[in-house]
Design a protein that fits this description.
about 30% helix, 6-stranded mixed β-sheet, 29 strands, about 800 residues, single chain, 7-stranded mixed β-sheet
């Protein structure tokens, strides 16, 4: 930071975005209407697995208002398997879908045809006229039996296994053979979806005279989308522009490059020579936007009588859906995070990515991490029961100590897994204190005497943040002396405009209000990857700092010449440039910019400028000539991921008669390194917690035996509301990362990661008198009642 001070970083500066967003003045893709705009609608498969005998679009092409109908055959060479977002050598059978299905569909909702018409109603009506002759095939739906199922998602993959992930540390076989105790669990987490308020949307315009494509997209990755479009459509990158305007949430579902729609809609625009808009409706979102979560684990833990964990092993299946655009990315995340905050000398994990006839999978907020924590904490619970010990005593005993960082896990999931910094023991103690764990057992006993069932759940976690290293920022001082940042990095509500302005203001030494941030626009900055994996502040923030630091050096050198001083004597603070030892010799940044731009000829002093200093500087600027501009570029390419961490704890009440669960207290202690804006961090963490509660108690995507989705609206897929979210006690820890100059770590997924594990343990603890075991999430009220009944039957037998 400038002058070694941090005036804005670390403060809860109000979000500059909120003034327009909360007043309904945001600009989303569906708000953008272009002259001559047409509208598109997709025809989607109604079967989960079928051959296509024929597609007849004759009636659709003759329908009123129709300008274009595209089937796979009409796309020609463009209708090739889409490039994977993550090329992955661990995928022995990688598969990506065609922009438009031709001879086979593999999930309900797969795109078959696209109709462009004068309005959306006419496009939808025409799409309904397209006749598709299907030959139904057996659907592969149940993950547990998919590898031995009769049906095949892809004919050439008889076991439906797309790829594998495996890693180990120590000597697990020897450890388990000699261990005094071994406990095993069989656990699962069901499929879910991100449910952003705004679905996906595209508005693409083609200028045939300029040969230029402009596309507005609700995406988390405008820069990669631009690069991919230019390659696939055979256009010069300079003639493709992608802009992500305001984006109404992403949570991973909008990071895909490419969805079929992202190719078909802009291609249609080039065919009709007019803008084409497609806006996803909620049914389409449920059947066509990528999903995640479903895994099944068979895991075991080895330990001694003192409660020391000696080894962990897990073998698991991951539901990859019909195609694998993200390869084994989610399974790698799971493998990276099972060890969590624990010292475990021997570990082995083996997973299979399995094809099913469901919507394809890509990371959803948490992205394999909730599954990992759920497995590990269910193992700790089993271990505690075997030893008759408090699970929190076992957790505390096995935490990595503060003096062990950087901590090498021994894993090598794509790259060596090394935790950069942490303070796990103190954070754990803080969480137990905030949840009042010391007095809980007496509270629990008194409640049981009154016929109420309370339970405590706790789970520590880690979060690998900031994958895909590269991100960039352009910085310039405009004619009025305002600092303008341009970034391809898109925001979906994270507060980028505020956080990046805080970092920039402190780095340059100007006022926060004197920084303008432009994000999600490839015209301003054409390098970078996107907003996902809790990487925004780590990669984007450091790119901002690098760019602004270079710009500051330019300004310092210019000022030193005008002030006839050395660069080391020039200071910049609060928007003023001055000389060390002579604070009266000062000019505003805006004044220096004006002097540089005009060569001193037309510049005028700003209020507060020292008149003598201004006149001397103006004369020097006239001698130098001009114009001079201040522009810089910063590109962050950090050596490894940072590891955030935290602890969640909750006390719940369960009604054994109805299966209802009420969260009475929830505690969240987290460490995301140096905090730039505490309020924004809290918003990120609490938003993640809400999604985690949904995943634990409310949300499950259901498919019938034929692969037909049964949850295609919010009537069936219930999101958490304010009534479901408890009051939260939140505590910050800051252990700065050693891997980047700002010392920051990501925080976007912290709130969601351990929630299912916490709620599962709390429910199990509450229902301990019934000997209930919780081995799956989410858990609905009728299922809790069923668990109690089965436990009673088992006891009676």
């Amino acid at each position: 930071m400038a002058e070694g001070l941090a005036r804005y970083v670390g403060r809860s500066v109000p979000r500059v975005e909120d003034e327009r967003l909360v007043r309904g003045r945001g600009r989303y893709v569906d708000d953008i209407d272009l002259p001559g705009q047409l509208h598109g609608a997709f025809l989607r498969s109604v079967l989960a697995n079928a051959r296509i005998r024929s597609i007849d679009a004759t009636a659709a092409r003759e329908a009123p208002g129709v300008r274009l109908v595209l089937t796979g055959a009409d796309l020609g060479e463009l209708n090739a398997p889409l490039p994977p977002f993550v090329p992955d050598p661990n995928m022995r059978n990688p598969r990506t879908q065609l922009p438009l299905a031709v001879d086979r569909v593999r999930y309900v909702g797969e795109a078959i045809a696209f109709v462009v018409a004068a309005d959306r109603y006419l496009a939808e009506d025409a799409a309904a006229l397209i006749e598709v002759d299907y030959e139904p095939l057996p659907a592969v739906v149940d993950l547990a039996t998919a590898t031995a199922a009769e049906g095949r998602v892809h004919d050439e993959v008889p076991d439906n296994v797309a790829g594998d992930v495996h890693d180990s540390t120590g000597d697990p076989d020897a450890v388990f053979a000699a261990a005094p105790f071994v406990e095993r669990v069989h656990v699962s987490i069901e499929r879910s979806t991100a449910s952003p308020i705004e679905g996906r949307g595209i508005n693409a315009a083609w200028d045939p005279d300029a040969g230029r494509l402009t596309m507005y997209a609700s995406t988390q990755a405008p820069v990669p989308l631009k690069g991919g479009l230019s390659r696939l459509l055979g256009l010069d990158p300079d003639r493709v522009h992608v802009e992500a305007p305001d984006v109404g949430g992403g949570f991973g579902s909008k990071i895909m490059v490419f969805y079929p729609e992202e190719i078909v809609v802009p291609y249609a625009a080039t065919r009709v020579g007019a803008p084409v808009k497609w806006t996803e409706d909620r049914w389409e979102y449920f059947v066509a936007a990528n999903q995640e979560r479903r895994q099944i684990h068979d895991a075991e833990i080895a330990f001694d009588a003192e409660g020391t964990i000696l080894g962990v092993r897990t073998r698991f299946l991951h539901d990859g859906g019909a195609y694998t655009p993200y390869g084994s990315d989610v399974t790698h995340n799971t493998a990276t995070h099972v060890l969590g905050q624990y010292r475990i000398p021997a570990f082995e994990i083996s997973g299979q990515v399995v094809f099913t006839n469901k919507v394809p999978v890509s990371p959803y907020r948490g992205a394999g991490r909730p599954q990992a924590v759920f497995v590990m904490e269910r193992l700790v619970g089993a271990m505690a029961r075997r030893l008759g010990r408090d699970p929190n005593e076992i957790r505390r005993r096995n935490l990595i100590p503060k003096d062990a960082f950087p901590y090498e896990t021994g894993l090598h999931i794509k790259a060596p897994v090394t935790y950069d910094s942490g303070n796990y023991e103190e954070a754990f103690d803080e969480a137990l204190e905030l949840v009042e764990a010391r007095t809980f057992r007496s509270e629990q006993a008194a409640a049981r005497e009154a016929g109420r069932y309370l339970g405590l759940g706790v789970a520590p976690y880690i979060e690998a943040t900031a994958p895909a290293r590269n991100e960039a920022c352009g910085a310039r001082l405009d004619e009025g002396g305002r600092l303008v940042l341009a970034m391809g990095l898109a925001s979906q509500g994270q507060g980028h405009e505020t956080v990046f302005a805080q970092i920039a203001a402190d780095t340059l030494g100007c006022g926060f209000e004197d920084v303008a941030v432009r994000t999600g626009n490839t015209a301003g900055e054409d390098a970078g990857i996107g907003t996902f994996g809790s990487r925004g502040v780590v990669m984007g923030g450091n790119a901002v700092a690098l760019a602004v630091r270079e710009l500051r050096e330019q300004l310092v050198r210019f000022a030193a010449d005008l002030f006839e001083a050395t660069p080391a004597d020039i200071g910049i603070a609060d928007g003023w440039v001055s000389v060390a030892g002579s604070p009266q010799r000062r000019l505003r940044i805006a004044t220096l910019v004006a002097l540089a731009g005009s060569g001193g000829a037309d510049a005028t002093a700003e209020p507060g400028d020292d008149p003598a200093t201004f006149e001397a500087a103006r004369r020097r600027a006239a001698v130098q000539g001009g114009p001079t501009t201040f522009e810089a570029h910063g590109q962050a390419d950090l050596p490894a991921m940072t590891f955030a961490s935290g602890v969640h704890a909750a006390i719940v009440e369960v009604d054994p008669g109805t299966g209802g669960v009420r969260i009475l207290r929830y505690v969240l202690v987290h460490d995301c390194g140096r905090i730039v804006n505490p309020t924004i961090v809290e918003g990120q963490v609490l938003g993640g917690l809400a999604q985690g509660i949904g995943g634990a108690l409310l949300e499950r995507l259901v498919f019938d035996e034929d692969g037909q989705p049964q949850t295609t609206s919010f009537m069936d897929f219930r999101l958490p509301t304010v009534d479901d979210i408890p009051e939260v006690r939140l505590a910050h820890f800051e252990t700065p990362s050693t891997l980047n100059p700002l010392g920051v770590k990501g925080t976007g997924e912290a709130g969601v990661i351990p929630v299912s594990a916490v709620i599962a343990e709390a429910i199990e603890d509450a229902l301990a008198p019934f000997a209930v075991r919780v081995d799956s999430m989410p858990l609905f009220p009728d299922e809790i009642v069923g668990l109690i009944e089965r436990a009673r039957q088992a006891t009676a037998a």
